[in-house]
Amino acid sequence: MKLARSSFYYGPKVKTSEELKKEADLRDRIEVICLEFPRYGYRRVTKQLQHERWRVNHKRILRLMQESDLLCRVRRKGVTTTDSRHSFPRYPNLVKGMAVVRPNQVWLADITYIRILTGFMYLAAILDAWSRKVVGYAISTAINTSLTLDALRMAISGRDPGRGVIHHSDQGVQYASAEYVEVLKSHGFEISMARVGNPYENAEMESFFKTLKYEEVYLWEYRTPVDVLERLPYFLEEVYNQKRLHSALGYRSPNDFEELQARDQEESSRQTLLTICVQS
Q1: Does the CA dihedral 238-70-212-166 come out positive or negative?
Q2: Beta carbons of 35 and 29 less than 8 angstroms apart
Q3: What is the set of domains in the chain, with CATH numbers?
Q4: How far apart are CA 241 and CA 248, in angstroms?
Q5: Tens digit of pLDDT for each residue in 187-197?
Q6: Segments of 88-152 assigned E as strands
Q7: Contact criterion met (CB below 8 Å) for 97 and 79
Q8: How many CB atoms lie under 10 A from the CB of residue 223?
Q9: Are 182 and 151 in contact (CB under 8 A)?
Q10: Nearest Cα to 261, choosing from 105, 102, 104?
């Protein structure tokens, strides 16, 4: 019959009770992760489990998530938040093609909307492009310069970055206004703007807002301004900055990434100092 000899001896593998228990524990842990991060895909779930010392690969996790119906997709129509029809000065894109290698080298800024029953709330956010950490944010029912200034002042107060930070945004009136530009210049920022109608020139912010909508806003279906003001800061500070794994950061959270880099820098400085002392 031209069958391989191994086929004659083959028998389906029967899992032991210990193996069945381990798989059940793994399924339980996957469900807990997906409850905490409902929009995690199987790759991030795999990385989270590997951080927790589970010996798993992405194919197994994909299969288990499919069997448990934990894979899902959400699509929503967007709303325009950028008004570039103004007479304020515009600035060239300083970050295109730039390698971001340190904290407070480039800050990214943008605005998005949060839909509620009676209309919209607006979120202005600032990310450190190096670590993807949210360093400043503000929430309001009005989309104006005061909103973006509040986010900027929070970022400056929390990071104390010094002079020379590149502030990159779109050409919206909230970022091009004389009041906003004056604050940037008074703190020694360099101003960079993306071209009109080109979201790829601020792609990291677009990615952040997509994460925010899919993993928080669409799940909670905010109904009132109070819902937004109570829930959104928690997500930004306790979930996104502290816990959420980012593929661009080697599947670490922004806080973990910054702390790891700081430790590595400290160790490198210590080794350099030891070398100098030995040579002298």
Answers
A1: positive
A2: no
A3: 5-67 (no CATH), 106-244 (3.30.420.10)
A4: 14
A5: 999 999 988 76
A6: 106-116, 119-128, 133-140
A7: no
A8: 12
A9: no
A10: 102
Tell me the pTM: 0.71
Please give the structure tokens belonging to residue 200: 């790829």
CB 255 within 8 Å of CB 242: yes
Does residue 229 contact residue 222 with C-beta atoms inside 8 Å?
no
Radius of gyration of the chain (CA): 24
Q: What is the pLDDT of residues 110-167, one digit of tens each?
A: 999 888 888 889 999 999 999 999 999 999 998 889 999 999 999 999 999 999 999 9
Q: What angle do CA 259, 265, 271 make, to 5 degrees?
A: 140
Q: Nearest-CA neighbor of 176 among 139, 208, 207, 149? A: 149
The C-alpha atoms of residue 53 and residue 30 are separated, in whole angstroms, by 14
CA distance 23 to 5: 32
* Whether the predicted pLDDT of 173 surpasses 60: yes
CA distance 106 to 103: 8
CA pseudo-torsion sign 169, 175, 176, 179: negative
Give the integer Cα–Cα distance in Å for 264 and 17.
44
Q: Could you tell me the pLDDT band of residue 19, with boundaries at 50, 70 and 90? A: confident
The pair of structure tokens assigned to 91 is 């600035």
Chain-centroid distance of CA 246 in Å reads 6
Phi–psi pair at 260, nearest 5 degrees: -65, -45
